[in-house]
Amino acid sequence: MTALTDIPEAQAFILHWGEMGSQWGVNRSVSQVHALLYLSDRPLHAEEICDALGLARSNVSTALKELQSYRIVRRTHVAGDRRDHFVAESDLWELLTSVVTERKRREVDPTIAMLDKLAAELRDRKDVPAHVRERIERMHEFMGTLAGWYDDVRRLPKSTLVTLMKLGSKVARFIPGKAKSDS
Which residues contact 71 (CB under 8 A, 6 or more apart)? Predict the structure, then answer.
């Protein structure tokens, strides 16, 4: 059986996914472990991951914990083997929604809470320039609207989400009062 990392295209995908992970604020090894598991047609145990990617066991262990916290990798058991094995979510919509949900929980929700606190503190402050108060309130409203939109969209069936994505900007024609584009 050919190892995934012996396939040049698979190796390129794993390396690129690691680079992209770095751009998205995710550790390169975490992204590479995810890419390897995503491409694998069977559950892999930690030692196989270490050997395939040339990573230290501690890096792989940390990566697996991080990926499990995003709910895009899960632990599974293989009959006759006492070791934990791991598989990646292969449904791309599930993968996307899991990542976005976790990023919202970690990044957007705390920002909204902080902006809510700041906006409340600034309401009674007369010594703060009006533009500072206004911009923080606008950012709070914007982030709240974004989170509300996400919550609404997340409840839509997958088939509806796919249709919306394929419609792209054409969906704007269904919005009342929307001027037609010149393009």
Answer: 89, 98, 102
